[in-house]
Amino acid sequence: MQKEECFYLGKIVSKYSFKGEVLAKLDTDEPGIYENMESVFVSLGNNLVPFFIEKCSLHKSNLLRIDFEEVKSESEADRLMGSELYLPLTFLPKLTGDKFYFHEVIGFTVKDSVHGDIGIIKSINDTTSQALFEVVKNGKELLIPINDEIINKVDRENKTIFVSTPEGLVELYLS
């Protein structure tokens, strides 16, 4: 399994017991849906390695207590500290309406209410405090904030996102 075929679920942040259990901080709004997983991919080096889960349960809001079948000691758990957890994209719950996962809108056209077609989404920059669509039009890159006030509609069928950008934003990039 390649990372491109998976989504980031969270990160192992600490040991829970001397029997090898670990706590993972999940990157999700709904941690409860991952409580009964049978397996997960653990990023070790440059590889995603499948680990089978004996049992897991929520521990204080968004921490998941995991008992891996293959990890039965503190020293084995130490090797996993800081490792990222991934699941196949097919495990993501389907979103409808104007909600979307970042990976699914790459390649969508962005249409502005004033300027019309302002380009194609080539990637999402979520390293800043405000996530941004990185849109390309005629070789120029536009950065469009991703928020509910700007996004009017997501049309999955036609691979188009309709936006109303703040006044002056498009001109800043395309003039």
Automatic annotation (TrEMBL):
The gene is rimM. The keyword Transcription regulation does not apply. Residues 9-88 form the RimM N-terminal domain. Residues 103-169 form the Ribosome maturation factor RimM PRC barrel domain. Keywords: Chaperone, Cytoplasm, Ribosome biogenesis, rRNA processing. This is Ribosome maturation factor RimM. It is found in: Cytoplasm. The PRC barrel domain binds ribosomal protein uS19. Binds ribosomal protein uS19. Belongs to the RimM family. The lineage of its organism: Bacteria, Pseudomonadati, Bacteroidota, Flavobacteriia, Flavobacteriales. Pfam families: PRC_RimM, RimM. An accessory protein needed during the final step in the assembly of 30S ribosomal subunit, possibly for assembly of the head region. Essential for efficient processing of 16S rRNA. May be needed both before and after RbfA during the maturation of 16S rRNA. It has affinity for free ribosomal 30S subunits but not for 70S ribosomes. The keyword Cell membrane does not apply.
